[in-house]
Amino acid sequence: MFTKEQQIYYKEITEACVGSEEQKRTEAIASLTTETGLHQILPRLVLFISEGVKINLMQYNLAILIYLMRMTSALLENKSLYCEKYLHQLFPAIMSCILAKQHCVRPDTENHWALRDYAASRCAQMVKMFSANIHGLRNRIVRIFLSTFRSERLPLVTHYGALVGLCEMGQETIEELVFPIIRPLGDRVIKSLENTSLSPIDKITIDRINGVISKYIPIAYRTSRSSPDDLEHFKHEFGSFYGHRLHTHVIQLRQQSRSGSSQPTHNRQFSPSSASNSRPSKILSGQASPSSHHQNPGSLTPSRSPVRPMNPSSSKHHSQSSTASLTPANSHENVIL
Questions:
Q1: Exposed end of the chain (fewer CB within 10 Å): N or C?
Q2: In this model, does residue 319 exceed pLDDT 80?
Q3: DSSP states along 292-326
Q4: CB within 8 A of 254, min separation 6: which ones?
Q5: Percent of the chain clearing pLDDT 70 (strictly above)
């Protein structure tokens, strides 16, 4: 049973987090990030996120999905909370936001890419946070992402989400698992481009996939492989579609690196020229959130502390590994795995 104070706080915080007033949302997220008395209502907050994702996926409510992912991030960043025992609810919600076929009414114009990118970064964060205590966590998440590439019936937007999800997990994952899927992914892209009835959303998705590959793969390749860079080797490893462009990007990176070493006062960064207009959006701290049919989702990084603060709970919590399924819930009808 919750105290009256906890009941009031829960009602106020959840209403503010998904409400239309940006200032209240910002303050509510700040409270979830810093409040030290949330242990007893944490299960309810997690359930609110999990059920909220299911409902708003079915209703194509992009803005609310973004707000729910912010709530998830805030709980993870709250150092006083122990979220490991709730991963069986949080991971399916996050994976659904990454891989869902559709998040919004107008996927060709609304920025659901930012939601996929942000959820993918939260997924990678959780894998890093909890892999030491949960055996095989990384492998389970990776298997879900890789399984999407084995099915051509899945839409390209799902492949995009899986690709970002893998790339966000870092250099080792990119080198070990993403390099081998670039060639077959390129073959899928070629087949799609040859289709005269290619939909507008698929055209946009291909540009987005190209942007992700241009952003992550050349840097990972330069880090793991030494020069010289042979064009035919790139074509053999990455296929005809991506081999040539990746070869060009890696050459540019190495040249920039040599130029940067001779001019130490300049901090040079790689920016894939061929994907400058298609680079996937990323919700980062301090940036404005994507536009949607709801009001402006607002800044990700809360600045003030809010709603009615609670006194720290005296209840104790015990370590407990989650062994339940981490795949998107079956009731997320928008997700096919």
A1: N
A2: no
A3: -SSS----SS--S--S---PPP----------S--
A4: 222, 227, 229
A5: 77
Rama region for 281: left / alpha / beta (φ>0; ψ in -120 to 50; rest)? beta
Structure tokens at 5: 């104070």
Phi, psi of 273 (to 5 degrees): -65, -35
* Tokens standing for residue 155: 């839409």
Residue with tokens 């009256």: 4
Cα–Cα dist 67/17, whole Å: 6
Q: How far apart are CA 165 and CA 167, in angstroms?
A: 6
- Mind listing the pLDDT tens digit for each residue in 6-53? 999 999 999 999 999 999 999 999 999 999 999 999 999 999 999 999
CB 102 within 8 A of CB 60: yes
Domain 8-148+283-327's class? Answer: mainly alpha
**Cβ–Cβ contacts within 10 Å for residue 283, how many?**
23
What six digits make up the tokens of 302? Answer: 């809360």
Tens digit of each residue's pLDDT (9 = 90 or more) over 75-91 = 999 999 999 999 999 99
Domain map (residue ranges) of the chain? 8-148+283-327, 170-280
Q: Is the peptide bond before 180 cis (omega within 30 degrees of 0)?
A: no
The pLDDT value given to residue 262? 62
